[in-house]
Design goal:
This protein has two domains: 175 residues, Phosphoglycerate kinase, N-terminal domain (Rossmann fold, 3-Layer(aba) Sandwich), CATH 3.40.50; 195 residues, Phosphoglycerate kinase, N-terminal domain (Rossmann fold). α1 packs across α2, α8 packs across α9 and α10 runs parallel beside α11. Helix content is 34%, strand content 15%. With 397 residues, it is of the alpha/beta class. The protein has a six-stranded parallel β-sheet, with helices on both faces. Strands 9-8-7-13-14-15 form a six-stranded parallel β-sheet, with helices on both faces. It binds adenosine monophosphate (AMP). The site of adenosine monophosphate has 16 residues, from β12.
Length: 397
């Protein structure tokens, strides 16, 4: 994969596909601007080379074809102005490929930045539509993809648009190159012991990744809602905890495969459970084997945290994807935060992937203690699964 450094970009019109899909609160304030800050290296690199820079991103999921203000990139542009400190030289187009975007793009001068409106306002984006991609491509000389988090989707700004350029005119931005490099190197040649910590709500979404990981790692730790499918597969009573009954056989197969391959497989030994999925009402801290009928496990308990801490103690590489409990509610957040602290405290190369998981690391104040916090959840899972990502494939020379 070529990177932006391999291209001659001086003074050119350049398109950078960013991932500005940042979380916002009810008042529309950006609550975590990491994705924007991480895109700055590539943007500054282009500004300093006197490029006319066009930035584009999707934001959440507007109804295609409908321009709704709540999905506008306005807050992102306000944050970009502050971070880049170039208030006069950055503007937002009212549309994506419409008259305003075209006029503003044509009027751009060297070192100036234009942000297009939410790519998903246009029907063609998610349909990977070639006519839409050609329109986008006609605005620039160079195509750069810096949106790792969107690379697993064959959308127009990721796939069809990149195809409109030859290898001398398309490449990965610094952030994309860094993320891919990190995952590929770690998975190909991990320093051992290599531990995977997997949590979150669903086994189904992570099944393939888990299967692939068994061939690579020395130990697996399972937490979060997905642990209960494995606990039930071992014959335990799990009350009303989250479970995917149709995957019980699969869970058994995975545990057998782990045993055969000598991969140590750890499940929670105790849980925090409640009668309701709520931040009110009674909760109990109990051994995993004693979940009462009608109760559900919503976090791992302190004994599990202690056990998992021991397990990762000698790790040289850790991949973490998925929280250990319903971390969004304070009373069920301890297991996830403790996991975050314990991973950050090791000397291991620690890679955190996934929106929720990086949110945990961020809230726990551990981002600096991790080696790498990936901006892309689905994309990083796909890489672990060994799948080819459309956005990366198209950039390969
Ligand atoms: P995922 O998208 O699969 O990584 O799942 C993340 C979500 O899993 C978070 O929103 C958590 O609240 C949720 N989660 C974690 N542990 C549990 C649990 N024990 N029961 C229900 N949901 C959980």
């Amino acid at each position: 994969m070529k990177t932006i450094k391999d291209l001659d970009i001086d003074g050119k019109r350049i398109f950078i596909r960013c991932d500005f899909n940042v979380p916002k609160d009810n008042e529309g304030n950006i609550t975590d601007d990491r994705r924007i800050r991480e895109a700055l290296t590539t943007i500054r690199y282009c500004i300093d080379r006197d490029c006319r820079v066009i930035l584009a991103s999707h934001y959440e999921r507007p109804e295609p074809g409908k321009y709704e203000d709540k999905y506008s990139l306005k807050p992102v542009v306000r944050r970009l102005v502050r971070l880049l400190k170039i208030a006069d030289d950055i503007q937002l187009a009212e549309d994506v490929i419409g008259p305003d975007a075209q006029a503003k793009a044509a009027a751009l001068k060297g070192g100036e930045v234009l942000v297009l409106e939410n790519l998903r306002y246009e029907v063609g984006e998610t349909q990977n539509d070639e006519a839409f991609a050609k329109k986008l491509a006609s605005m620039v000389d160079i195509y750069i993809n810096d949106a790792f988090g969107a690379c697993h989707r064959a959308h127009a700004s990721i796939d069809a648009m990149a195809r409109q350029f030859d290898d001398a005119h398309r490449a990965a931005g610094f952030l994309l190159a860094k993320e891919v490099d990190f995952f590929e190197k770690t998975l190909e040649n991990p320093v051992r012991p290599f531990v995977a910590v997997v949590g979150g709500s669903k086994v189904s979404g992570k099944l393939e990744a888990l299967r692939q990981l068994l061939d690579k790692v020395d130990k697996v730790i399972i937490g979060g809602g997905m642990a209960f499918t494995f606990l039930k597969a071992q014959g335990m009573e799990i009350g009303n905890s989250l479970v995917e009954d149709e995957l019980l056989d699969e869970a058994r197969t995975i545990m057998i495969k782990a045993r055969k391959q000598g991969v140590k497989f750890y499940l929670p030994v105790d849980v925090v459970c409640a009668e309701e999925f709520s931040d009110q009402g009674h909760i109990k801290h109990i051994p995993a084997q004693e979940i009462p009928v009608g109760w559900m496990g919503l976090d791992i308990g302190s004994a599990s945290s202690e056990l998992f801490k021991q397990v990762i103690q000698d790790a040289e590489t850790i991949i973490w994807n998925g929280p250990m409990g319903v971390y969004e509610m304070d009373r069920f957040s301890k297991g996830s935060f403790q996991m975050s602290h314990d991973i950050a405290a090791t000397d291991a190369t620690a890679i955190v992937g996934g929106g929720d998981t990086s949110d945990v690391a961020q809230k726990a104040g551990d981002v600096d203690g991790m080696t790498f916090v990936s901006t892309g959840g689905g994309a990083s899972l796909n890489l672990i699964e060994g799948k080819k990502l459309p956005g990366i494939e198209v950039l390969k020379v």
